Amino acid sequence: MIEPRIVKILRDIVGSENVSIDQADRICYSYDATQQQYLPDVVVFPGSTEEISRILKMANSEEIPVFPRGAGSGFTGGSLPIASGIVLVTRRLESILRIDEENLVAEVEPGVVTEDFQKAVEKVGLFYPPDPASLKFSTIGGNVAECAGGPRCVKYGVTKDYILGLEVVTPQGDIIRTGGETMKGVVGYDLTKLMCGSEGTLGVITKIVVKLLPLPEAKKTMLVMFDSIDGAAKGVSAIIKGKIIPTTLEFMDAATIACVRKATKIEIPEAVQAVLIIEVDGEKDLIERQAARILEIIQPLGVVDNRIATTPAESEELWKVRRSVSASLRNVNPDKFNEDICVPRSKVPDMIREIEKIAGKFTIPIVNFGHAGDGNIHVNIMIDKKVDGELAKAEKAIEEVFAATLRLGGTMSGEHGVGITKAPYIPMELDPAATAYMQMIKKALDPRNILNPGKIFLES
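Above: the chain's sequence. Below: its structure in token form.
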């Protein structure tokens, strides 16, 4: 347990009401979406950059580990306090500081919920594209730390593509600014991009300068059903070769469709083996032409049926098919391992076939869906941990999924990060020299290893 004098120092910095050593609070901040649990010694809720600076100066001096945390919605254990110590929660830093309509930038604090920010900028006719599935509760700070993606990244890119500058507190407690508010800037190393996706291991983000776009005039949503996963994948490539970049290109395989049939009222014929949800946005006349052209391009590729939304309500109804997936997976088995591999989009059918072989080899259900436009497949290995041997089979299956991914020129994580769950597999993807170089960066910036220790690398 942490010493009482340390708790007193923390209370002096942020106020007694913003420090908790209560068992209930410590349990609340001991887990994330992985459902793994590590109990912290103390939970702290700072309200300013200066308070975070003082906390880190003290923690660095005392060599106490600090674990930054947003909403705790991560799938790889990135915020878990695996070495006890201090959980530093950024939820009080929840202000949208300004929206600059003239220069198309905004400045926000890390505790701002992603969807709240999107709605705020849309009210003034602007657009923040990154849309992770957790956007209703995940925070912008967590999105930056993980470099979150989402369905719209096929057209618009991921979180790091919209971060122009940051205010960061270093592990030693220094306050630095990276980047700025201009679209260009090449003075010194790009520390902004270094911090994006660093999973809270190199600094605590306290302010974020975000690039915005004009809000598209309209959007059009289509649900297209195919008789094979190959047809759906060829459809993705054909659409892009046809010089159309949709906003989203989401896919579901046969195992996912079987779950969806039980969870929604939308009828999906038995012959359907794959589904694409395709959305285009832009000027009204343009998207009407694009939608018609898309249907023309993909029709020869085994299209069984399609639904086209004509109103926002109908669009929302089509998206319910995709949003129903996660909840419906529990009907397969109670426990889920959610991996987010990414392969070149032309390799999606090959990857699905590899996964089907692995599922058969280990006799466990594997359900696949995700972002076909960029080859990002969410591989859901469904087991019942109470059954002897199931957990061991799942772990072996995960390793084989990763191996197949790398053989096809992919990566083990498209948007979930590494955290602790993927750390053991890093040697499969990164060569020793690259890993050593990254560890050197961590050691140079955090020589006492107090900031989110044990994440990404098993040894850092």
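The chain has a mean pLDDT of 95.
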